[in-house]
Amino acid sequence: MSDQIPTEIAAEVERQHALIMRGTAYGDEGTRRVMDRELRQRLTESLMEKRPLRVYLGVDPTSPDLHIGHCVTLRKLALFQQLGHQSILLIGDFTGLVGDPSDKDSLRPMQAAEILNRNAATYREQAYKLLDPERTEVRRNSEWLGEMSFGDVVHLASNFTVQQFTGRDTFKNRIDGGQPVYVHEFMYGLMQGYDAVALKADIQLGGTDQTFNIMCGRTLQERQEQHAQIAVLTPILVGTDGKQRMSKSTGNYIGIDEPANSQYGKAMSIPDDVIVRFFDYGTNLADDEVDQIEAGLKSGALKPMDAKRHLARAIVSEWHGEEEAIAAEERWTRTFSQRSVPEDIPEAAIDFAGADQLEVSLPIFLHEIGAAASRAEAKRLVTQGAVRIDDEVVKEQAVEIRSGAVLRVGRRKWYRIVAS
Amino acid sequence: MSDQIPTEIAAEVERQHALIMRGTAYGDEGTRRVMDRELRQRLTESLMEKRPLRVYLGVDPTSPDLHIGHCVTLRKLALFQQLGHQSILLIGDFTGLVGDPSDKDSLRPMQAAEILNRNAATYREQAYKLLDPERTEVRRNSEWLGEMSFGDVVHLASNFTVQQFTGRDTFKNRIDGGQPVYVHEFMYGLMQGYDAVALKADIQLGGTDQTFNIMCGRTLQERQEQHAQIAVLTPILVGTDGKQRMSKSTGNYIGIDEPANSQYGKAMSIPDDVIVRFFDYGTNLADDEVDQIEAGLKSGALKPMDAKRHLARAIVSEWHGEEEAIAAEERWTRTFSQRSVPEDIPEAAIDFAGADQLEVSLPIFLHEIGAAASRAEAKRLVTQGAVRIDDEVVKEQAVEIRSGAVLRVGRRKWYRIVAS
User: Fold this and answer.
1) Shortest Cα–Cα distance, B162 to chain A (Å)
2) Chain A within 8 Å of B398 (Cβ-Cβ)?
3) Which of A70, B62, B206, B334 is the most exposed place for a label (fewest CB within 10 A)?
4) pLDDT bracket for residue A102 (50, 70, 90)
5) What is the pTM of this model?
6) Which chain A residues are closer than 8 Å to B171 by Cβ?
7) ipTM
8) How far is A172 from chain B (nearest CA, A)?
């Protein structure tokens, strides 16, 4: 077939293929090789037939705040748009509407629907910071899953064996550990798989943890005599702790709607060994810029602290613009560098319960972290103006505190607030 | 509470309890004890409140021919009716309407619905030979299962763990043996479980193989704050081969609509060691009559052949009346006893593929079972009138042959036709 493909199309296939596959990650080499080959074929068909590919990303509207970890796949979705394909943002509202059956106190369906609508709108607005709203097809899977009967579910389920599910790490580990796995948990894979059929998707984007669900989609599409979608998988971005995946519940995230100072401070707090990964997947810097930074860090020509400033500025610039990035940097420098914040200050852990901010009673908190011998002493220190948060004197007893903030008590005691 | 129960009610509870529990069978003693206790309580409530119990039996209308194995539970359902309770015959049409998703050539839903309607009617008519039509509530589970959405199914499934299902023998054996179990197979248990909720059942009848499904119903009823139904379980009747369970697909069954001669011949063909079980579960004889027969067989006062005559006559009498039973017995005696059919004649196995009758080419068949040295010789034997089936000379080359028939070739060669 290749001898019939005009040179300019072959070249364009190669160009698009290289951009799409850049920075992808697959659990195993076999899957990567198959997906790579199918992608090249599908791109060729698309360009020969002048038919844009249908590319979708499914998102969970139950937690509407986007962080830069979400943006790894969203950037890919935007890329397809830039390459002239049809990008689809799929709001996975059906799962939410169905509710979590294990939660006895879950909201009634009507209320849930309102919240989901609001969340979906919030999510969409944030996603539009990367996507072109005019060219994005926004869909909800309640459109088709809400129409399905018990009989349809039986037919859907008949395409998969129990062993395929129990063999998945996520279930296998729980079963081996004697933990219950509920039957309805299998159905979420079926739902996601059917989304691909309903959307007639050519490509599904997702983190590497979505491999199984995307493969469910391929199976169902083949049963329906559709072309099986191609999985374009991206790595899961690590959180600001450098250890766990970035997520709201862990509190180790940088939200795209967070204030500039907060984003800047969080970016500065990451461990040195994940700096390059944050550049790769948390910013929109070009490859060669990141290559230079990586080389600089390796040779020692670039100090980690300077690389992080660059990173923090890049992140804030993307979401708040250059001006705010510069202001955040100046404020950070004023707080830390010029006032000589020691580089390795101790951390004071606090349970944010997944929130960004938390109101605390300062005397209790200072005493608990050992910054004052008693609550009474802590109270005095506050009243005397000896307590600063992010370089600002705090005289109130109850304050809003955020993860990443720097607390200074007296002249010598420094603490970085972190989520426990 | 027991001191408030009038004596006559307590006595009636005991009477009903004894009749209901007679001949039941439970996989484990713990289950039997719980069910026994709950049954006594529920009967007491029913009689105190003058509220008949809702008792149901679910039947599969995909195979409409009832055999005496089906009647073990149907007799119990009829008993409840005689005791003044509300008996419900549940036609499990939803499974049939959904179709067997693993069967690619399955009929289209509309056709299936027609067939199921016809089957359900046939089934009902046969069941009315034991049940009082006026007092039987006939329901179909498509009434409620057909209304359920994907979301409802998710909620239903959330009440069970995967481990509960994979721990069932039927699934465990297949999983251990490396055989696939399909996800939709789990859903049949959910459907059956939900039937109990929809029917607000007090009691569900079933063979011991239905234990798990009935317990699913209990679980779901408790979640819906209904009283959990009580399982009244009966043994599975063995087939005429004395080995496998009676079923149409194995061909080892006695159908209640089968001709009298066929029923009689099949009953006479059972192995001696299952005679008492056939009396217990395959006839409507009273307990003391069966006790006498059992004692007679043990002491040797009653010959197995005579016990089987009694059995065969009882079965034919129940389904065709006394007169036909006598006629069938006379015919059988003419064929076997008076013409001195040897008692232990060899069996000639033939694959009926689940059917009652099969057209065979007699010369080929006679040669295959070794009754003739060649097909040519077999043809000659047929032409000469040396071949008899059930004591009638057969001169056609192609004949309908039935399981249980006696074939005689020449003077000395006898064969009993059995399903392979």
Assistant:
1) 5
2) no
3) B334
4) low
5) 0.74
6) 162
7) 0.73
8) 11
